[in-house]
Amino acid sequence: MKTDDLIDALAAGIEPVRPARLDPALLSWAGGAAAVAVILLLGARSDLTQALQAPTPWLKAIYTAALAQTAIWLATRLGRPGLDPRPALFALLAVVGIAVAWGGIETVLTPPDQRMAGWLGQTWDICGRNILLVSAFAAPVVFLSARRLAPTRPTAAGLALGLATGGIAATAYGLLHCGEATAAFVATWYTLGVAAAGLIGAAVGRFALRW
Amino acid sequence: MGCCVVDKEAELKRLMLRGLDGDPVAWRALLTEMRGALTPFFKRRLTGCEADAEDLVQDCLIAIHAKRATYDRSLPFTAWAYAIARYKLIDHFRRQGRRHDVPLEEASVLLADHTVEDGVVRRDLKKVLSILPLRQRRLIEDVRVGGFSLAEAAQRNGFTEGAAKVSVHRSMKTLVASVNPNED
């Protein structure tokens, strides 16, 4: 095709557009997919209705939802060519920093003989694996929600989308299934699970996010 | 060069914003401008396979069109377009299986490639000519830049041909002296 004809064709078909972002409807679908995956694959905790009346599951959810939110912001900035992603990156690291500090303070205030039990809980060895499992169901929808963006660094954008997926999955997992209640546990094992989802996202994004 | 790039940026951003609102005339003008800027940009960076430059230009124009919603209105247009052009260049090298570093440059190189010769010469010429009285300046622009014959230029500016000849001669002397201050 001649470049002149191409320009004519493109200009003839132009329509007004809104600024591109991750599709919010698809992101809600990702949240729904994560909740369904938790209930079907892992099962809801037996004391769900009582547990959700206490503040602890919601505090966990605030942390993991903040991870998802800042990761979504990071992915959006990475998906707009020429935009500096660092403000979003700093926000994401600040969220992790606050959780780690909270977990550290809580551990220091715990009697020494109970610290290890609080940190490892009952499920430290399966927490990350479960978050990854749930992420696998939410991830396709999250990646699909980014299709209007134009990431000039596909690996970094994949990392951000992976972290967002992990944050969404961890929120569903923390509210519906996991009974762990210490800040040290959440700051360590949830964070590691979300980080692992981010790394897988980076590997996928390297190929899937090219345009 | 600085002022031309700034002017160009303002013009392109204006076209971009109108394009985002769906104005086909502005969009056509923007794509045409970008074609002019992208062609030398890619040719210069594809030594040995300049034939690919045309494909990359088309690829980039399609990307500018399809991904126009990713433009952040608070950013210079050039920063956005440069990031796209650089991405397409990296992607091109990767598809060829070539490891190739594409250094991160100032976004303004996208316009600089296009305007560096034209722009600098035109601006310098304008600056130099500005020392002449208006009527003489128009005459010399017509003869030396506009490509008119002395007779035509004289008529356009209300000189007799003889007077025009003298005026051009004097103007050239003034201009040469102004550029080479040592020579007087």
Automatic annotation (TrEMBL), chain A:
**Keywords for the protein's UniProt record, in alphabetical order:** Membrane, Transmembrane, Transmembrane helix
Looking at the UniProt entry, the stretches that span the membrane are: 26-46, 58-76, 88-109, 129-146, 158-176, 188-209
Q: Where does the record locate the signal sequence feature?
A: none
Is Transmembrane set as a keyword in this record?
A: yes
Give yes or no: UniProt keyword Transmembrane helix: yes
Protein name as catalogued: DUF1109 family protein
Whose protein is this, by species?
Answer: Brevundimonas mediterranea
Automatic annotation (TrEMBL), chain B:
Q: Which UniProt keywords apply?
A: DNA-binding, Sigma factor, Transcription, Transcription regulation
UniProt xrefs under Pfam families? Sigma70_r2 (PF04542), Sigma70_r4_2 (PF08281)
Q: Does the keyword DNA-binding apply?
A: yes
* Record-annotated RNA polymerase sigma factor 70 region 4 type domain positions: 123-175
Note the InterPro entries from the entry. Answer: RNA_pol_sigma-70-like, RNA_pol_sigma-70_dom, RNA_pol_sigma70_r2, RNA_pol_sigma70_r4_t2, RNA_pol_sigma_r2, RNA_pol_sigma_r3/r4-like, WH-like_DNA-bd_sf
UniProt family annotation: Belongs to the sigma-70 factor family. ECF subfamily.
Q: What is this protein called?
A: ECF RNA polymerase sigma factor SigD
Q: Which organism is it from?
A: Brevundimonas mediterranea
**What does the record give as the organism's lineage?**
Bacteria, Pseudomonadati, Pseudomonadota, Alphaproteobacteria, Caulobacterales
Q: Which gene encodes it?
A: sigD
